[in-house]
Specification:
Chain lengths: 717, 299
């Protein structure tokens, strides 16, 4: 049993009052000298027993009354099963109800009856209507970070308004973090009962992180209700988008489609949009496996990067997977000159082998880069003329004039990337490349040979990595762990100090710099202190190699251009205003033309929040003038997964609910409240009337009897 | 007639028994056409020839018609009657409630008034006061100072702790002769069967016995309210009671007690009067006279 107002129980102390009064007045009757004492004594003897019983009864009634009243006012209740027919939902305990809604592309169905944001909204509204006046409701969205739409309040209209103002991002989401936040919302509401409604896809992906962990971490969620919105039975989405830029023939945009639940011969319509304008429409026929492809040819009509997107129109399934965005760079991509410091006849052993393979894969994947290769001995000024960036790969030395030329070009805005190797010897007295290096070389540190049995133990790995740097930002999301798996057996140790603006972007686990950047005029140079092949590291074999090369290519290759970043909805991009040399950063939505100035934090970082899919262009602001940024294009699109969607194991999820909360909502748990105070008040009323009747003086009874014709007083005269 | 009676408040204001008795008697006699006669019945004894000086009201005209001579009636009761006034001065007689005169004051006034009337008609009242034992004894006498002595005894007799009426009656019985009158004024709250037996004995010996049971109105109605500690006037143990709880039972006990006394008196040919102290003293006196008159006409 419990009490809704337990503080009023202090009133039971008043039950002592009749006892104290009884004891007090018992000793203090009025004194009267009387003559007929014998008669009085005889009459007392006759009535003594009845008198005593009456007094005890009155005392008991009065004490009971003073006990029952505060008990009733404290509003006692008892819990009983929800299936007990005697009690309706009116007796349910006041509850705090927190809605946790999954904001992922799995809720982006184009059909309102399926797993769509409209269906999620309808589920929230329906349950809000079912709540009682004493319930409190709050809404959380499980996005990349929990978004509190409304704390637990009683104002349903305010909740509905706040909910309607939220625009889904269809992003990656963290359900575990959202449920942890839900606990805090419950705790603030401070209601005797709790209920958590989890609305989402019911996918294994959503629950994978939860069901495998100790559920007691989420205790406090109360009873849990799962609202799994039905996934589309048919879905067609864009699996991949590639852009091939053939300067002569124009740009070819290819999109591969993949569907489930479709039939052979099903057709969908695909649109190509450039800078928000529809430029081409094609019908795509799907095969028996639900696959299809569409290719658009497009001749750019303007220079510079432009947002590009392919949309599926009126296709069934998840809408968020039916559009892909990219940046079309009509300039043909960065021209990168690869300078081979150690050419080999054997392709595999060539210094540039893995680099070229990575670049080839990037080009195949739609990255706009135009590589060219030259051996170090053959490098001349002509090679540098059109280069946007130069990679010096294991180059031991260059003529002084070439070094000076390179320096000038970097100062003019060209990018320079230097990687180490056996040819780069810190012990060489004449260090001709020294003017290009971010910091002087100190020594070569060999930790192990790649074939050593204990190489994995002795090797160093990436330790402190600036994941906000454009080169490593991609590793802040999925795939970041691949960077940690890289083993480096040998590297060049640099001096701790260097000239100019130098910063270490990444270090090894022993503290030695791994990737160092130096600003030189309008350009920048990067130095990787190990190799780009397998001589000193196994980086080329790791999944981080290609994206790292991609980011390095774009960073050094687009020093004055339009490097793009790919984010997921909910992600964020932090731009250091000081290093960019700007006062502020503005964003322009290339699809909607919405312009916004990014907010800055206390560390002078401009924050770009990826709220929804699309393409944005960033630009810097100096003295009111707009200026380009190295990383000026931001593409935001949801993270896709394979379909059909694998649903969570129900037993595992139920077990989690048992551990985290009070079981499943509506399955016979003790949520119903039996109000006891009405009964107590009724009993108190009966006692009150009984006390009145018992305490009435006999004369009063006699008068009443006289009214009804009965003899009122004994006639003695 | 009520206008001739002395109100009890006024009566109580008169300090001494004698004064009170005077007020009662004077008020009582005002309304009487002829002198009240208290005492035993006057019985006809014989005729005698009329002599000058005899009361012509005694001439028996029927005898004249028969004998053609004037004859006067001569009664037996040509001598003084002795009246023994028995006054209960036990503690219980000191009870009064809400300003009423105590039973003792009231009863004293009654007996003193009675004594006055008796003396006025030439009878000889005596007085015995008693409580737990016979107290002061004033033999019957018709001398002029008898009333003063009687009133002084009534005023000054100390109250006793208990009540022993039979002892008092025994004392009366020692002195009383036939054709005496015994008037008892008591509350009779502690009456025993022995007392009633004594009264019957006195009656059988030819005495007229009159009982005035004097009670306060509060003893009848038991008007007390709220938790009350009753303290006995004769040293009885205290009783802490809620009067409302006992009122009915008390009244039943009292009623039974009064009935028993009354029935016993009736059966024993004892004249019984219930006198309540909120009545004027004249009322029981009148009742007594009326009873006397009725008895003499029968007789």
């Amino acid at each position: 049993m419990g009490f809704l107002s337990p503080i009023l129980l202090l009133g039971v102390l008043a039950a002592a009052i009749p006892i104290l009064l009884h004891l007090h007045f018992r000793q203090r009757g009025q004194r009267v000298e009387f003559s007929a004492m014998a008669l009085l004594a005889r009459s007392l003897k006759r009535e003594e027993r009845g008198i005593r019983l009456k007094q005890l009864l009155l005392l008991a009634l009065r004490v009971s009354l003073l006990l029952l009243l505060p008990l009733a006012m404290a509003q006692p209740f008892s819990r009983c099963g929800a299936n007990d027919e005697l009690f309706s939902s009116e007796d349910r305990l006041p509850a705090s109800v927190v809605f946790v809604v999954e904001d992922s592309y799995l809720l982006s169905s184009t059909q309102a009856s399926e797993a769509s944001w409209a269906a999620a909204s309808a589920a929230v509204e329906e349950r809000l209507r079912q709540l009682r006046a004493w319930d409190r409701a709050g809404v959380l969205v499980a996005a990349a970070a929990p978004v509190l739409i409304s704390p637990a309040v009683g104002d349903r209209a305010a909740i509905s308004t706040a909910w309607a103002d939220y625009e889904p991002r269809y992003s990656n989401f963290d359900l575990a973090a959202a449920l942890s936040e839900a606990r805090a919302v419950h705790a603030e509401a401070d209601q005797p009962a709790r209920r958590t409604v989890i609305i989402g896809s019911g996918s294994a992906e959503a629950w994978a992180d939860l069901v495998t962990r100790d559920a007691s971490r989420w205790q406090g969620l109360g009873q849990i209700e799962f609202v799994d919105l039905p996934q589309p039975e048919r879905h067609v989405g864009i699996n991949a988008l590639t852009i091939n830029d053939d300067s002569a023939a124009g740009v070819t945009i290819s999109a591969t489609l993949e569907g489930s639940g479709t039939s052979p011969g099903d057709r969908v319509r695909a649109e190509l949009r450039v800078a928000g304008e529809e430029v081409d429409v094609r019908d795509v026929e799907l095969d028996g496996d639900g696959r299809g492809s569409v290719t658009f040819s497009y001749t750019p009509t303007a220079d510079g990067p432009q947002p590009l997107s392919v949309w599926l129109v009126d296709a069934p399934g998840w809408g968020a997977a039916q559009r892909r965005f990219a940046v079309l760079d009509s300039g043909g991509g960065a021209r990168v000159l690869l300078v081979n410091g150690d050419p080999r006849s054997s392709r595999f052993n060539d210094e540039l082998y893995f680099l070229e393979q990575a670049i080839s894969a990037l080009v195949s994947g739609g990255v706009s880069v135009r590589p060219s290769t030259v051996n170090a001995e053959a490098l001349n000024a002509g090679h540098l003329q059109d280069a946007d960036a130069v990679f010096l790969v294991n180059v031991a030395s260059l003529p002084n004039d070439m070094v000076e030329l390179l320096r000038e070009r970097v100062q003019g805005g060209m990018g320079l990337f230097i990687s180490a190797g056996d040819n780069l010897n810190p012990d060489t007295p004449e260090q001709r490349l020294a003017p290009l290096l971010p910091r002087p070389m100190r020594s070569r540190r060999r930790l192990a040979e790649p074939n050593d049995p204990d190489a994995a133990v002795r090797a160093v790995r990436f330790a402190n990595v600036d994941r906000q740097h454009p080169v490593f930002r991609v590793f802040a999301t999925h795939g970041g762990e691949s960077l940690q798996s890289v083993q480096v057996y040998q590297y060049i140790l640099l001096e701790p100090q260097g000239e100019g603006e130098v910063r270490t972007i990444a270090t090894f686990s022993d503290g030695a710099p791994a990737l160092v950047e130096r600003r030189l005029g309008n350009g920048r140079l990067l130095m990787w202190t190990s190799t780009l092949d397998m001589d000193w590291t196994d980086l080329p074999l790791r999944g981080a190699y290609v994206p790292m090369i991609h980011r390095i290519l774009e960073y050094v290759g687009r020093g004055g251009g339009s490097m793009s970043s790919n984010l997921s909805p909910g992600g964020r991009l932090e731009l250091d205003l000081s290093s960019l040399g700007v006062e502020a950063v503005d964003s322009l939505n290339l699809l909607t033309a919405e312009r916004r100035r990014l907010e800055s934090d206390a560390d002078n970082q401009a924050i770009f929040l990826a709220e929804r899919p699309g393409v944005w262009r960033l630009s810097g602001s100096v003295d009111g003038e707009s200026t380009d940024l190295p990383e000026s294009m931001v593409v935001v699109e949801p993270i896709h997964t394979s379909w059909p969607v694998e649903l969570v194991d129900e037993d595992a999820r139920r077990e989690w609910a048992e551990g985290a909360g009070e079981g499943i909502w509506g399955e016979g748990s003790a949520v119903v409240r039996r109000n006891l105070w009405p009964w107590l008040l009724f009993i108190a009323l009966v006692i009150f009337y009984s006390e009145t009747l018992v305490a009435m003086r006999r004369r009063a009874w006699q008068r009443i009897g006289g009214v009804f014709g009965r003899k009122a007083e004994l006639e003695l005269r | 007639m009520s206008g001739d009676f002395i109100e009890r408040d006024s009566l109580a204001a008169l300090g001494s028994t004698k004064l009170r008795a005077r007020a009662v008697v004077e008020g009582f006699l005002v309304g009487q056409h002829r002198s009240p006669h208290i005492g035993t019945s006057v019985e006809f004894a014989e005729f005698k020839e009329y002599q000058p000086g005899d009361d012509i009201r005694r001439i028996d005209w029927q005898a004249y018609a028969r004998t053609d001579r004037y004859h006067v009636r001569q009664f037996e009761d040509e001598t003084n009657m002795r009246a023994y006034l028995v006054m209960d001065v036990s503690g219980s007689m000191n009870f009064s409630h809400e300003g009423s005169p105590t039973k003792r004051v009231w009863a004293s006034t009654l007996l003193a008034s009675l004594a006055w009337l008796l003396l006025r008609q030439g009878d000889a009242p005596g007085l015995l006061v008693y409580s737990d034992a016979p107290g002061m004894w004033l033999p019957p006498s018709s001398r002029r100072t008898q009333l003063d002595d009687l009133c002084r005894v009534l005023d000054e007799a100390p109250s006793g702790a208990g009540t022993n009426l039979e002892a008092g009656l025994a004392r009366v019985a020692e002195s009383a002769k036939a054709r005496s009158m015994v008037v008892i004024a008591s509350d009779l709250l502690e009456t025993s069967d022995e007392m009633l037996t004594f009264a019957r004995v006195l009656r059988r010996r030819g005495m007229e016995v009159v009982v005035f049971q004097v009670l306060d109105p509060a003893e009848l109605s038991f008007p007390f309210e709220g938790m009350t500690k009753f303290v006995g006037l004769e040293g009885e143990p205290e009783l802490l009671v809620e009067p409302d709880e006992l009122r009915r039972a008390y009244q039943e006990e009292l009623s039974a007690h009064l009935k028993k006394i009354k029935d016993t008196c009736i059966l024993s040919d004892i004249e019984y009067h219930l006198a309540i102290t909120d009545q004027p003293v004249e009322v029981p006196l009148r009742e007594l006279l009326q009873a006397r008159s009725l008895r003499s006409r029968r007789g």
